[in-house]
Each structure stands twice: as C-alpha cells, then as structure tokens.
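INFO  loader      accepted 1 record
INFO  loader      residues=130
INFO  predictor   begin
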Amino acid sequence: MGFALTAVSAWIADVFRFGTKPKVYEKDPKAKCPTNLKEWQKMFDMIYGPMNKACGLQKCWLHVHEELCEVSGAYRLGKRRELRNELADLFAWFMSYCNWQELPLGEIVLNLYDERCDTCGKEKCRCPMV
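INFO  predictor   done
INFO  writer      dumping tokens
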C-alpha cells in the first residue's frame, strides 16, 4: 500500500476514534477496524448501502455538499470537536457516493498519486506555491 493511502487511512481512523476505539469495536474486540480505503468503503456500503440506494444518487451527492458546508462552518467558527464530527460525516457520505457510482476510491487515489505528486511527479512535491 502506498504512503498516501496509509496516511489517509491513519487520518480517517483518528477522525473516527477520538483517541479510543470506536464503540462498535469496544463491544466486539475481535472486530477489525478498517485499515484502508477499500475496507472503509465496504464498511459504509454494508451499513448504509440499501438506504442510500433508496434515497437516490442525486440526494446522496447533495448530502456530500451539505456535509462539506458543515465542515466549512465548524472550521470557520473554530469548533474543533464539531469539525471532527463533520469530517467523519463528510467522509461517510463521500464513501456512499463512491459506492453508488461503483468507484473503487482506494485504487483511484493510488493510481493518481502512487507515492508521488500528481503534477510534478516527484516524491516530495516541488510545484510552485499557488
């Protein structure tokens, strides 16, 4: 697994954990916490797949936008705890959207970045600051 995916998986796990294992994993110590984007996507599909299919692709995409606005608001107001919760919600809805579109996000990210900058191609980005 590439560095980028490992870093993303660690960040996602941190967002969901708040320093401890999520409650579902506390109840079942044998349960395995997702460790990569493919596993996260599969988990969200198992939990929300049928409900998301029933609400439709357009509503699913609108939820992604709604959550992004909530992330922006929490960031702007400096509400760190709320920001963490909204990032988790955004991630869940984005996973649902990818599931709806049958997009394997882990493969897509790895193919584009593959441990290098997608623009300059270097392992450490050398692109001019924007």
